[in-house]
Every structure is written in C-alpha cells, then in structure tokens.
Amino acid sequence: MRISWITQSSAPSVVEYGTSAGAYTESATGTSSSYRYLAYKSGQIHHVVIGPLDPDTAYYYRCSSDSTRQFSLKTPPAHLPIKFTIVGDLGQTGWTNSTLQHIAQSNYDMLLLPGDLAYADFVQPLWDSFGRLVDPLASQRPWMVTQGNHEVEKIPIIHSTPFTAYNARWRMPFEESGSTSNLYYSFDVAGVHIIMLGSYTDFDPDSDQFKWLQGDLGNIDRGKTPWIVALIHAPWYNTNTDHQGEPESDLMKQHMEVLLYKARVDIVFAGHVHAYERFTRVYNGQADNCGPIHITIGDGGNREGLAKRYMDPIAGISVFREASFGHGQLEVVNATDAVWTWHRNDDDVSVVSDTVWLRSLSSNPACKS
C-alpha cells in the first residue's frame, strides 16, 4: 500500500505501522517533493510504500512520527468476493458530502474513481481542501484513480506542463504494471484485473498508452483474474446531450474499443457526463453478448450540476439512465457472478435505483476468443 500525505514544513517521509493500535512494529521510508504552480507552492508531498501486508487485515499507522494522528486501514482480500465503490466527478459540494457519507456506510474494500477529483481548475488550494475532504475515507481504504479533463490544468506558455498537481499528489502504481505514465496503469486485486486508462493523453496506435494496453491485455491470466474491469474518463457510449462529439470519447473508442472487445473486458466505467447511465453489453455501436457493459458514473457531486438532457429517442443499447447524483457498488461474488447497484442521492438518502446481476465473459463458452 502506498501512503501519501502532505506536511506544511519539512518532515520525515516515514510511516510506522502494525496490526495493533499504537503498536508500530514496522516502519518504511519513502520520498517527498513539492511543486510550484504559478504563485502557489505546495507543501511537502510524501509517498511511502508499506508492506508486504497480509490481505483482509486491519493495520494501524502514523505518518512522520506524528503522535497526534493515528490512522487505520484495511487491506483488500486476496480472493473473491470483493466489493468496489465506484464514483466519478466527485468535486467538493454538498452533494459530494452526502455521497461520501453514503460511501462510508457501504463497507467497501476499494474505491475506483474514473477522473475529475478536486475540480481545482488551476486554483491549487482546492487540491488541499479536497485532500482534507476525502482524508477520512482515503486513509482507510485504497483509492485508485485515473485522470479527467479537470486534472489537466495546462496553461499555454504560462504553465505548459499538464497534470502537475495530479501527478504530484495522486501517485498510482504505474511502474509496477510496466507503464511509463501515472496517467494509465493496471493492477490485480482478488480475482479482478483493473485497467485505468488516460482519456487526456495520447491513445492512437503509435502511442505508448496503446502499445502498453496491448501488452497488458495480452498478459492477463483469466484463471487468476476471471474478471476484467476498465476505467476511462470520457465515455465511449453516451445518450446524454452533454459531451457529444469529443475526440477523447470518439477517437479513443475508435482506436481502443477493439482491444477491449478481443480481450473480453467485462465492464467499462466512465465519468465526465454528470449523470448515470448503464448500457447493455455492446461493441461497435451494437448490442453484443461478448462486449463489455458500459456504465457512466460521473455523478459524484461536482459543482457544475447535473446533465439532465438526454437524446430522444433512447438508443436501443441504453438500459437505464437518470440524472441524479450518487455512487455505484460492484460486488464480485465469485469467478462467474457479480452484482452492480447504483445508489442515487435522493433528499440526501442513499436509494438503490438500479441493480443488475452480471456473469463474467470468461465463463461464457460463446465468448472464448
């Protein structure tokens, strides 16, 4: 597990940890850095990898030998079942708060976020306030994220390097999966292979990301990970009037959809559109029993509001859609079965509004590639 935290002044990049509260039998040392963005200078950003850790185990830890703050985390299970929370376009609004409260009650093992975290949009102190907002949850469970358009923060000439804050603060395990960029990576957890893709970096067939994805998909062992889940930010399928015709959706789909289809990816989660939509299994614009299910979950609580207008008539492949804030839960029960539920925020109460049982493509003889 990588532990990340920020101190306003110089402090040791050390995490002390153990399986009993207050008893730190192990320690690990990492690195620290800071970044500048126009007139803003960040605090010291510390990243420390602890472990190896036992699966499905509670650990207690403290950062920089700070005796005033003790944290606890639970590692994911080594085998199925496992429960994911998925939420996109989170932001920092009242709706964000209620979404986080609902997530806190869900007893999940890992959170997956398909982009648009803080909605800092060049205002760097908003990255700090976002960190404080999610700290109670992100300190307890692994939060695995990919980037969205609000993470780019590139200003021509003035600040020409994109993703400065995102890459400094949210360091993901890209090197471990053979990736050369923090913007795309993969990992295995329990019986699931999860692929985090970058909608806002190069994805054409000559790109590093495309070639990395080809290799990553080719190395998957469905005996060990019978489920494959992919996350993108800009959805490839979308019947909302918002975010139609964008190259991050259309061109990425054009280049990469066939790779995911041939690898029999089970589910593709996306954000970007501030509403919820679930599609049937689909490939190349048509229902296909061997294609992935596409789910848009960009309704975490952003400040831009909901995308309430859908195209009419509804496309035949779109099964359920609703413009409400909320979050989703994917419980992978075993090698063949999983249940997906979408919880909308109705008057600040978590209401299950959509639910479906899924079967893995690896268990479907008709989809053996």
TrEMBL record:
It comes from the Eukaryota. Keywords: Glycoprotein, Hydrolase, Iron, Signal, Zinc. CDD domains: MPP_PAPs (cd00839). It catalyses: a phosphate monoester + H2O = an alcohol + phosphate. Residues 82-276 form the Calcineurin-like phosphoesterase domain. Coiled coil: none annotated. The keyword Transport does not apply. Residues 291-351 form the Purple acid phosphatase C-terminal domain. It holds the Pfam family Pur_ac_phosph_N. Residues 1-74 form the Purple acid phosphatase N-terminal domain. InterPro entries: Calcineurin-like_PHP, Metallo-depent_PP-like, MPP_PAP, PAPs-like, PAPs_C, PAPs_N, Purple_acid_Pase-like_N. GO terms for molecular function: acid phosphatase activity; metal ion binding. Its cofactor is Fe cation; Zn(2+). Its EC number is 3.1.3.2. Belongs to the metallophosphoesterase superfamily. Purple acid phosphatase family. This is Purple acid phosphatase. It comes from Gossypium gossypioides (Mexican cotton). The lineage of its organism: Eukaryota, Viridiplantae, Streptophyta, Embryophyta, Tracheophyta.
